[in-house]
Amino acid sequence: MKTINIQNKVTDNFKRPLISLRISITNRCNVKCFYCHHDGIVPQDYEMTPKEIERIVTVAKELGIEKIRLSGGEPLIREDIVDMVSKIANVGFRDISLTTNGILLEKYAEKLHEAGLTRVNVSFDTLNPETYRFITKRDYMENAKAGIQKAVESGLNPVKVNMVVMKGINDNEIWDMFQFCRETGAILQLIELLKTEADKPGSFFDEYHYDMGELEDELTEMSDQVKTRKFMQDRKKYFVEGGEIEIVRPMDNTEFCKNCTRLRITPDGKIKPCLLKNDNLVDIIEPMRRGYTNKELKNVFLEAIEHRKPYFTNGCHAKS
Prior knowledge:
- Strand 10 and strand 11 (243-248) form a beta hairpin.
- Helix 2 (81-91) packs parallel to helix 3 and helix 3 (105-115) runs parallel beside helix 5 (141-153).
- The two termini are 18 Å apart.
- This protein is 33% helix and 22% strand.
- It is α/β, with parallel strands linked by helices.
- Mean pLDDT is 89; it is low at 1-6.
- It contains eleven helices and 16 strands.
- It has a twelve-stranded mixed β-sheet with strand order 9-10-11-8-7-6-5-4-3-12-13-14. The chain has a two-stranded antiparallel ribbon with strand order 1-2. A two-stranded antiparallel ribbon has the order 15-16.
- The chain has one domain (4-317): Aldolase class I (TIM Barrel, Alpha-Beta Barrel).
- GO terms for molecular function: 4 iron, 4 sulfur cluster binding; cyclic pyranopterin monophosphate synthase activity; GTP 3',8'-cyclase activity; GTP binding; metal ion binding; S-adenosyl-L-methionine binding.
- S-adenosyl-L-methionine binds at residues 35, 73, 123.
- [4Fe-4S] cluster 1 binds at residues 29, 33, 36.
- It catalyses: GTP + AH2 + S-adenosyl-L-methionine = (8S)-3',8-cyclo-7,8-dihydroguanosine 5'-triphosphate + 5'-deoxyadenosine + L-methionine + A + H(+).
């Protein structure tokens, strides 16, 4: 096995260190966003227990993982979410974060922060009630706004608002959302639509895709400062008039793959080495239930890391 360990950090065969672990703790959700791609995970009904997740992150830490992110589905649907965060925090990581649609965040923000959650990303695309209803098929916009405010007040830092920008739907709200985030104390992340293999010519992507290139040029001109986040796929952060904007460009590029430092865990306990692939998953939950030791589970992780390769090379899909 070529996987090596440098300064207590496991790297894959392409010298990419493994720094973060993203765990999808459920596929259930309380909204039905029409652009959702389930974070690249095939929908399942199964969910791991807090104890099982605690064991997984314990082994991951021994491999040098420093950051944990919990996602879904909608993770706050799980009534054991605070216990789960507490168990992860007790293992000891420099960063524990969560991605949510914010609907239940007002209820949980303070408890989650006390349990050890560091920061939160809130998927929130519009300040227009009709547009919110069109995107989510629900009427929870005010709940989400209250959740963002409560998260800031509770001490979670940073609180980021993830706005998927879609042509003809919410592209005219970018600066309104920036103003909302600046007044609230949140950071705005503008996300460009991801094209999937299911998107044929004339499909959803072609209809709603909004190219961020022109906006980035505008932000570069008006920003007081621009920073590049090296271990976040060279993502740009713009400091504008006392607020912050980050641009998340599509992941189908070499920069994303070259700088990828993340492994994922599916809700049914499989290690997912690459966001864009579903044919190389490695089961860790069944070996755990069969009584594998932590040392043996580390080897399961190493097997998954061995499967990691850049999905895109020089702008093209690197065929297996």
